[in-house]
Input
Amino acid sequence: MIKSHVEALKKGFAQLEELNREKLANAIQEAEKVNLENCVEDDALTAFKTALDNAKAANPQTNEEIDTLVNALLDAQAGLHFKEEEDLPLCNKEIPSAMRWMF
Output
């Protein structure tokens, strides 16, 4: 009987734990800042897009779930491969000083 009360109390305290949804929201916000046009189209980019979609669609019920989503997103973002500078569109490059008078 006491054991069941202890388990009920443990469940109650676990539910009182405040979810840190702001942590997930911040991770999503930072991930959305990545300019995907500058990324190489490869498995890493696909994994990043999947992790971002999963994080946005998730409804985590525990901080552990939040941490898992955030870590998956950060790991996927760290794995991105970026194009070489000469492969980037001109708008992403600095305008040469000789041409600045035009703008």
User: Anything to note?
Assistant: The CA atoms of residues 85 and 93 lie 8 Å apart. The longest helix spans residues 63-78. DSSP finds four helices and no strands in the chain. The chain has a mean pLDDT of 83.
